[in-house]
Amino acid sequence: MKVVLFGGSGFIGTHLVPQLIALGHDVSIADIAPSKSYPRLFSRCDVRDAGAVHETCAGADVIYNLAAVHRDDVRPRSLYREVNVDGAANICAAASAHRIDRIVFTSSVAIYGFSAGEADEDTEPAPFNDYGKTKLEAEAVFKGWYHAQPGRTLTIVRPTVVFGEGNRGNVFTLIDQIRRRRFAMVGCGDNIKSIAYVENVAAFLQHVLSRPPGFDVYNYVDKPDYRTRDLVSTIRRQLGMSGEPASIPYPLASGIGAVCDAVAAVSGRTLPISRIRVQKFCAPSRFSSARAMASGFVAPVSLEDGLRRTVAEEAGHPAVAAAKTGGALGRGCT
């Protein structure tokens, strides 16, 4: 099949491309950023440009939409809607025009917001930020495309926090702060989180191509879930550190975040600390992966091994080779 990956130059897309190629698919990457790993497959395409999206989709059998604006500090805020929602509409219009009947959309568990307990696919969405709200709206756009004509297939995958080698997201930041001895635990670290290793997320996105026609929605989480304090302890052990990190009471950290927000608003600068980041770090975020696992999928890499590889590679740890062959590891979240 000819597969077009919007946002395919990104972290997840770069891991998905080789898996699709290995299965014999003809893969094209459409992105605003060049693909460093697969430059020959790349063509520049902004999902906000309806004409470019239409042209890119010509001849495709399957569309993956991984393109998104997702950071907390995106400005102007209108970009969330332009990329996440209007981009989805442009992709659906192109799919309809070219009679493409299969779309895979990577949404996010951010649509659930600060959900109590372990959220599954039937949990009522309650997004609290622009990213989560526009991802939920994009889901509605794709559902509208699916219901508009019989015979179409739509799969929505909602990954949790994704980590892995080469990524510079939340897990990397945590590793880097611990390595530089700049990390302080906010609160007691008892909050439970769900995380996912990038190779497993990519493998699941490839796996859903084998699902029967129709509509499916899946959370993607690698189990088991762990506490923040356990992840911190694990990283410290991997780095050869002993003892416990410094800690800051949550009210104090929240106050510092509020001050940083005020400074950022006045100065126009983006600061590494904000009230919402403190809140997100300390909040529980647990999601069920039962439906994804019931689909017959088996994750190729254990969560333990994925975390071990990431700690070793991102921190320049000398045990990179050993980290890829197995062994015990603690627990983690971010």
Q: How many strand segments?
A: 14
Poorly predicted residue ranges? 317-334
User: In percent, how helical is the residue content?
Assistant: 40-55%
Biggest sheet statistics: 7 strands, parallel
Helical/strand content category: alpha/beta
**Helix count, DSSP H or I runs of 4 or more residues:** 12
What name is given to the CATH topology of the largest domain?
Rossmann fold
Look at the structure and give the CATH class of the largest domain: Alpha Beta
Task: Give the DSSP E fraction (strand runs of 2 or more residues).
Answer: 15-25%
User: N- to C-terminal separation?
Assistant: 37 Å
Strand order of the largest sheet: 3-2-1-4-5-7-11
Shape: globular
Instruction: Provide the CATH architecture of the largest domain.
Output: 3-Layer(aba) Sandwich
CATH superfamily of the largest domain: NAD(P)-binding Rossmann-like Domain
What count of domains describes the coordinates? 2
SSE succession: EHEEHEHEEHEEHEEHEEHEHHEHHH
Calculate Rg over CA atoms.
20 Å
What descriptors fit this protein?
three-stranded mixed β-sheet; seven-stranded parallel β-sheet; Rossmann fold; single chain; 334 residues; UDP-galactose 4-epimerase, domain 1; 12 helices; 18% strand; globular; alpha/beta; 2 domains
